Every structure is written in structure tokens, then in C-alpha cells.
Amino acid sequence: MSAAQSLVLLQDVSKTYHMGDVEVHALRKESLVIEQGEFVAIMGASGSGKSTMMNIIGCLDRPSTGEYHLAGRLVSRLSAAELAQVRNEVIGFVFQNFNLLARTNALENVELPLTYASTPARERRLRATEALQRVGLADRMHHFSNQMSGGQMQRVAIARALVTKPRLILADEPTGNLDSRTSIEIMKLFQDLYRAGITVVLVTHEPDISQYAARVLVMKDGRIQSDKRQAPREAVLLPAEAEADS
Amino acid sequence: MNLLQTMRTAIRALRRNKMRSFLTALGIIIGVGAVIAMVAIGEGAKAQVVATFASMGSNLLMVLSGATTAGGARGGYGSLPTLTWGDLKAIQSEVSSVDVAAPQMRISGQVIAEEQNWTTGITGTSSDFFTIRNWPIAKGELFPKEDTGAKVVVLGDTVSEQLFGANVDPVGHVVRMNKVPFQVIGLLAKKGQSPTGQDYDDAVFVPVRTFLTKLQGSMEQFIPGIIMVSAVSADATTRAQRQITTLLRSRHRLADGVENDFSIRNLAEMAAAMEASTNALTTLLAVIAMVSLLVGGIGIMNIMLVSVTERTREIGLRMAVGAKPTNILSQFLVEALTLSTAGGAVGVVLGIVGAGRLAAKMNWPLLVKPEIVLIAVGFSALVGIGFGLYPAYKASRLDPIEALRYE
Known about the structure:
Chain A is an alpha/beta fold. Chain A has nine helices and ten strands.
């Protein structure tokens, strides 16, 4: 069965919110398959249902109807505690506003998901160090979030998402708070992860950013309006800027 | 996430807001400190009362003779001798709840040594008297059991000091009372003051027969004084009182309806009543202190609620990266518990120091019972859990999406 191989398998998933007497259909019976190793951008205006889609894929929310299989496991009816464990083991999150812990250094921020996986301290430290090296922050391990630039903070957040060796990275507007040059840096990082075989799903409303992905879903009014595959645009830093960065 | 990590996370969170954490813990510090100090003060007062009564004698009853009535003027207890030597013997031998009984006859007189003299109370009694009064001998010996009428005297510490000087052994010296030479055979241990400030040690003691023949005229069968009785136990004093009353009424041939021609004072009962009232005081103080501990707990709850609200985003993130609701619950619970037990520990130290200072000032013994310390610390931990539970539960029930979006 191909469903077992697909990383993300949504079948007739809908999500309805009740706001007083009004029913809001954030997602209307959509189905979606994302295979292991894809780089998907979910586009759409605000209110299009892309955030709801991401929350359900990310196991932060449960669908009202329909079934969701993640990595071959039916997760649409799991309890809050079970979902937490699925998030911890399978998914890495990257947010628009980084969400680093205040007064906590980069290394400890990256270690955080591992503490909930009950990884021994020595191994936590080792894996957090590796993850930070992978995002190019080997020299910033003991810096606090207030001592770092936005780009550096987002790299720490990506390292935190990577540290559990997840099968899926979910990024919600990861470049929304960054300038265009830093945005390209971050997108280059995501492309590197994609090439290394990690599945990346990113939510954005910027068409520029979606060009770096290999597949673009456009959402509107709770439905997938289009689903196109493309050759991803190469994220290349301008030589002068690259020099200035290093 | 194990307990150690949870604790480290909690301590880090508390250190992020040092001033706030300190002020929150202060409520518990004051509460626990107050409980310990108040209970120690109450216990000290109680011990003081118990010690005072114990110095008067153990399980003590005093039997006083009746009152005279002459031309309408009533003489008061002891003015009419109604107690006989036979009564004393009967109390001693016939009443089951009585341990020992001894007469106490007292006159004021001058005691003359070689170089000094001193006027004091001269008591005629038997050697049992010292058993009843819990009064040990410091030097020499007490009267012989057999009362032979020997001219011997046992000195109280104050008298000895007045006659022979401090730290001088008076045993072997001769003193004169009522022109009769008495040989000093013993020096009593220092006993201190009575609850009314009377100096117990300002007294000398001679055997009954000697007292009656050499110092005070004999009144044949009547005892010119009172009978001191020691009951077999503290619980037996009331029974002894009843039994002695029955015995004396029958010996004095009092018909029903006739008033007693003697009276019995039960010091053990008084002591128990005093102890009960100080116990009530201790309880009252402890309850008031507990209330302040409760207020401290409400302070913790308040701050934990604020903290949960402030850290909504952090909670959302922790949930997103894999924290289960129970992880969040235990994190905030441990924070509340850390605040309350740290406050409790400091409160214990402050409470003991405070109680010690007060005890020193009031001349009370310092009594910090370990069980009170345990109760206070345990209670503060309970307060931490009790008042930390609601905010922690609230945090654990947050929706990760809403929490992440919280501004």
C-alpha cells in the first residue's frame, strides 16, 4: 500500500471552527499526499486555510473529520500527550518569530526537544553541538538569544528542529521577520536539508520564497487551488554579500 | 523529562525573576517562621508553668485544718487545729492513691551560728517531706527515718549562705534556735523561687519530735500545721482528694450536710488547668500563624498565575517540541514547590532564631520541637502544591496553537 510509504497522507480532512453561532470552514474535505524527501511550499492569503493545514500536518491540531496518517501511523485521533510524543519524534518546527527561550543560550535552546525525549545529558550536548555546526553556528553556541541577529536566531531555531533527526521539518513563515538577504541564507539552509533527504514543508505568503521549493500548493477558502511541481530556484548569495557575511 | 531536569528548569525560571521570586517566598518565610516561633513561645510558656508546679512538689495535695469562729470573726483555714496525728497516719496507711504524707509545721525564728544570725522559717517535718517536694540534698544527709527527737537541722541554701557564706559546707557546724543547739546534718539543693516570688531556700528543717519539744509547744494529738500529701500519680490526685475527704469526714465524725472542718488543695489539678490554658494559647498562636502561611500560599498562586500568562508562548513552544501536558504541569508545580519549600526552609531558620531571642528575653526555655518544624515545612510544601496546582493545571491545558500565537 502506497499510503504506508507516504510521509504525510491526508484523506478528506476538514476543520471547522465554531465562533459563537458562526461556523468557519477552515479546511473543506481536502486530501493531500507528501512523500518522503519533498520540499513543499504552501501558499495562500491569510484566511485561506494554510495555517490550519500546517497545524494539522504538524499534529498541533486534530481534524474535525477525515483521517491523517503521518509516517504510516494514524494520528488524527490521538490524545494531546500522544500527539506531543509524535511531534517530538517525527517533526521539527521553525517559526516566524523564532520562539527561542529567553536568557537561555543557543546550545540549551537546541537541547530542549531532547530533554522531552529523555535523552541523556551527554548525548544531548553532543547532538545539539552537531546541529548547531550544521547550521553554521559552531562559534555561537554559548550566545544568548539577545546577543544574536535575527538570521542567527532562526538558524538556532532550525538547529533545534533538526536535533531530534525528524523526518519532517515544518516551517511557518520562517523568513517573515528577516530581511531579503538573510531570507536567502535561510532558504539556502532549507535547500541543503532538502538535498540531504529531509522532507521540508514551509508555509509562506511570499511568492519569492516559494520559488525555492520543489512543489507549490496554493490554498484558497479552505481548499487546495493548485498543486504544481517545479524546478527549485537555486538560493545563491551575491558574492559581495557572502563575503560581508563571513 | 526526569525530576532533576524539571527542577533545574524550575530554578532557572525562578532566577529569571529574582525579586519577584524572593517576595513570593517571603510570604511563606514569614508564615513558617511565625508558626515555629509562635509554637516555640507557647511551648516555652507551658514548660515554664510545668517547671513551676514541679518545683512545688510532685502530684501535690495540701490538707489544711479548719477555721475558728470567735464572736463572728472567722479565722480562716488552719486557725482551728482539727487535723490529728492519727489523721496523718490514716492518710498514709489507709488511702490507696496516696504515695506518702508528711506534716508541715512552721514558725518564724532566729537561727544563730558562731559569727552570724538569720531569721527564717523553721519547719518541723518528716523525711518524707523532701520526697513530696522533690527536694534533693546537696551535702550531708536528711533526717533519720526513725524520729528520735535528735537535735539535728537541715539548712536551706539561702540560710546556709547567710550564716556561713557562699559555697561553704555547713555540715557539722552547730546552730542555735530558741537557745537550743542543733547540729547541721545536711544542706538542701538550691530550689529557687515559688511562683509568687517566695524564696524556697530561705528555710531550715528539723524533725517533728524535735520541733514539738524544743521549738513549739505540743498540742497533744493535733498537728499545729498542715499535711502535705503526694499522690501515686498525676492522674490519681483527684481520686486521692476524694478518698482523703471521705476518710477525714468519717474520722472527724461529720454528719451528712455538715461542712468539712478541713480543706484540701489540689496543686496537680491547678497545674493541669494552667497547662491546659497555655496549650490553648499555643493552639491559638499556631492557628494565627497558619493563617499567615495560607496568605503566603495565595501569594504563590497569584504569582504562578501571572507567570503562566507571561510565559504562554514559552509553554506553546515547549508543547510544540514535544512537552506533554504532564511535563508542563510538573514544571509549574515544581516551580511553586521550590518557592514554598525554599521559603519554608528559610522560615524555619528565622523562626528558630526569633524564638530563641524571645525565649532569652523572657527567660523561657527555648523549645523548638522537631515535629513542629516538620509540620511547618510539610505544610508549606502542601501550600505550594495546593496553590501551585491550579496555575500548573491551567498551563498544561493550554492549546499549543493559541499559546504560540499569544502576544
